[in-house]
């Protein structure tokens, strides 16, 4: 059985990764424009 805590921490990890890739692609875009 998966506990709520495990699900929540898994979601948190996914959100952090999504956040990271969004900021990373934003940084790359800025560098390309310069």
Question: Counting H and I runs of at least 4 residues, what is the number of helices?
Answer: 1
Q: Low-confidence stretches at least 5 residues in length (pLDDT < 50)?
A: none
Q: Summarize the helix and strand pattern as letters.
A: H
Global shape: rod-shaped
Summing up helix and strand content along with how strands pair, one would put the structural category as mainly alpha
Helix content: over 70%
Strand content range? under 5%
Strands, total number? 0
The average pLDDT score comes to 90
Question: Major sheet, described briefly?
Answer: none
Radius of gyration: 15 Å
Span of the ends, CA to CA: 51 Å
What does this structure look like?
By secondary structure, the chain is mainly α. Helices cover 88% and strands 0% of the residues. It contains one helix and no strands. 0% of the residues are buried.
Question: What's the SSE blueprint?
Answer:
Blueprint (H helix, E strand, L loop, with lengths): L3 H30 L1
Short description:
With 34 residues, this protein is mainly alpha-helical.
Features:
single chain; 34 residues; mainly alpha; 88% helix
